[in-house]
């Protein structure tokens, strides 16, 4: 028994981490769809980590039922790989689209698992993935075993493609975590192909799960969930730092014009599209020179570092970006803004109030122009 513990100590360590994650998740009163998906991934990963050493332990043993145990553990080990891959992709899909029905309609991305199960059933009668010698109860690879590993690798590469396709819809932190989560199993499989005694293929998944739970499920995010801009907390943290450090900066406060009317006329889904479109414009224009944030609703703010006395160029760039769409609702979007430069001894509240007052003054003028006859509005 001690020899087995030494040989599979990394499996024991990985199981300990999974157990800790599971217990922490159970202590939370909050029940979410992502929480449920993570629990399923933990169950499947724990099964693979237990099954892997069992296939080695039962290999070559001769006692009543040994053949069934050796065959069934290998059968399940082959099956659990695509199950984990599908659940991981389901988790990422939900984090991006926040739509449980979408994932259920895609059968939790278990198409590869269903195909693998059917192949494994066929394998019982015509071994192509593996065979168990009844006389010696020993494992032998089948002629098409590499196809299984190819399907697994392809599943994780598909996840990376999915991530690359939708990377603009998630935070930079999520992109990094998902990339590590998907790449580590591939690297683990490659390492284990060179030395089957290095049990990295399944245990490497635990690293990704640990990062997902710690950094995505428990730590507060710095970014707004919908727009992926920084949130109010991040905005206030950066503002407080700049005030304390007495560095030159200014703030731009934005508010969308007629946003309630867009929501009422076209629905909240279109309203979300408008917020995303405007957020993308701010991110595009101010990515290098400022920190763009969503303060709440249709109110946005940009902290411009350095001496920024003139903002007209930036505003024109935002307006130009908003026009780069075929959607008439998005194309007709307008906004009001107010800029205030920070001066020594100004408080954060004073700075915000002055920029906010300028923004509302512009909004009132915009409404007044809108209500005037066309000729009179042009003369203002």
* Low-pLDDT stretches: 376-380
What gyration radius follows from the Cα positions, in whole Å? 28 Å
Distance between the termini: 89 Å
Number of helices: 16
Explain what the structure shows:
- The chain is α+β, with helices and mostly antiparallel strands.
- Helices cover 66% and strands 10% of the residues.
- It has 16 helices and six strands.
- It has helices at residues 2-7, 9-27, 33-58, 66-97, 100-105, 111-125, 145-165, 172-194, 204-218, 232-245, 259-266, 268-286, 312-322, 328-331, 348-371, 374-379, and strands spanning 130-133, 138-141, 249-256, 290-296, 299-305, 335-341.
- The strands form two sheets. A four-stranded antiparallel β-sheet has the order 4-5-3-6, sandwiched between helices. The protein has a two-stranded antiparallel sheet with strand order 1-2.
Question: Care to give the gist of this entry?
Answer:
By secondary structure, the chain is an alpha+beta fold.
Can you tag this structure with a few keywords?
4-stranded antiparallel sheet, alpha+beta, 16 helices, 380 residues, single chain, two-stranded antiparallel sheet, elongated, 6 strands
């Amino acid at each position: 028994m001690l020899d087995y513990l030494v040989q599979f100590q990394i499996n024991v360590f990985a199981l300990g981490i999974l157990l800790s994650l599971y217990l922490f998740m159970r202590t939370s009163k909050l029940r979410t769809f992502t929480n449920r998906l993570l629990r399923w991934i933990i169950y499947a990963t724990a099964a693979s980590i237990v099954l892997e050493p069992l296939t080695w332990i039962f290999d070559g043993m001769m006692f009543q039922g040994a053949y069934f145990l050796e065959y069934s553990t290998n059968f399940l080990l082959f099956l659990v790989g695509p199950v984990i891959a599908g659940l991981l992709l389901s988790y990422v899909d939900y984090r991006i689209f926040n739509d449980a029905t979408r994932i259920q309609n895609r059968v939790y991305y278990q198409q590869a698992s269903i195909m693998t199960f059917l192949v494994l059933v066929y394998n019982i009668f015509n071994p192509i993935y593996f065979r168990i010698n009844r006389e010696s109860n020993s494992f032998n690879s089948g002629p098409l075993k590499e196809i299984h590993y190819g399907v697994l690798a392809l599943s994780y590469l598909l996840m990376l493609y999915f991530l690359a396709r939708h990377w603009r819809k998630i935070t930079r932190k999520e992109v990094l975590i998902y990339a590590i989560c998907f790449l580590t199993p591939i690297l683990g499989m490659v390492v284990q192909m060179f030395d089957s005694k290095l049990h990295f293929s399944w245990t490497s998944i635990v690293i990704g799960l640990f990062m997902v739970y710690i950094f995505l499920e428990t730590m507060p995010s710095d970014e707004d969930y919908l727009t992926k801009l920084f949130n109010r907390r991040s905005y206030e943290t950066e503002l407080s730092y700049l005030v304390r450090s007495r560095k030159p900066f200014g703030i731009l406060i934005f508010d969308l014009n007629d946003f309630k009317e867009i929501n009422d006329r076209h629905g909240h889904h279109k309203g979300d599209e408008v917020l995303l479109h405007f957020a993308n414009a701010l991110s595009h224009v101010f990515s290098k020179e400022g920190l763009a944030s969503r303060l709440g609703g249709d109110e946005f703010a940009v902290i411009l570092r350095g001496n920024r006395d003139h903002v007209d160029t930036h505003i024109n760039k935002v307006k130009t970006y908003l026009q780069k769409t075929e959607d008439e609702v998005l194309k007709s979007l307008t906004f009001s803004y107010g800029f205030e430069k920070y001066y020594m001894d100004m408080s954060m509240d004073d700075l915000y109030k002055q920029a906010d007052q300028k923004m509302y003054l512009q909004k009132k003028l915009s409404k007044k122009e809108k209500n005037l006859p066309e000729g009179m509005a042009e003369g203002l």
